[in-house]
Design brief:
homodimer; two-stranded antiparallel sheet
Chain lengths: 147, 147
């Protein structure tokens, strides 16, 4: 059981942009700081833009910034947005090839477990991840302290 | 976020054997009833044997049976046994390439969510999946009622 790399990278982007605050960032800079693929990040940032997490400010002093304050970015909602397929098992989808789907009780138990998983994430925001560790995280990522 | 096919098939095997009770089963028969790969099932059954869920009774009236009563097969323990990799994100492992691992608070939040997921499964056994649906499940899978 894994979260996708897409979710992993989305979280890294949001942490980075959250630490930078009003300062603009580039995909290149995030890719370098985390030593991850620029191509992957481009897709991630594009989708984070579409889903209302990130904005690309145009112009000379342009670059990426968060579209909302970190306290308004809920981790449960984010994971629901970035995990494109939350079908824990085949029968979660519209079409199941498992013959016992109609009678099987496992689906409801796994759904209950998934809801419990998400309910924990729903209790946290990006701000909860940043505020207690702002200094350490900024230092590791070479981000100058916010003005 | 998915459970592995290994977990999915393990659950199907245990449901099947649980419905059959003392009657012996073959891998061939389970593969046919669920219309899934016999080769995959062989690996699944082998590992379920090693982990104390299934026994192969030898001899003329041999075949597969559960090693424990369904009420003693806990779903949380089973999923811990069959999901070979519960590292939700990279930093759950011993070696993380993510630069912020040492300072990042996400790992503890995701771990809390994973524990909540497993805690739900811990509340159910295989018997809870079988008893209310024994007749329907047996009918779908062509299993004769238990004596």
């Amino acid at each position: 059981m894994h979260l996708t790399r897409f979710t992993d990278y989305s979280l890294r982007v949001l942490i980075y942009l959250g630490l930078k605050g009003e300062q603009r960032s580039t995909i290149q800079e995030i890719a370098e700081q985390f030593d991850i693929s620029r191509n992957h990040l481009m897709k991630v940032v594009h989708e984070l833009g579409q889903k209302g997490y990130v904005t690309a400010v145009r112009g000379k002093h342009g670059g990426l910034v968060l579209q909302r304050p970190p306290a308004e970015i809920n981790l449960g909602m984010l994971v629901r947005d970035t995990e494109h397929d939350m079908r824990l098992v085949e029968c979660f989808g519209d079409h199941s090839d498992c013959r016992i789907t109609q009678a099987c009780l496992l689906k409801s138990v796994f759904n209950e477990a998934l809801q419990a998983f998400l309910a924990v994430l729903d209790r946290y925001t990006l701000a909860d991840m940043l505020d207690p560790r702002r200094q350490q995280l900024s230092q590791i990522l070479g981000i100058a302290p916010m003005a």
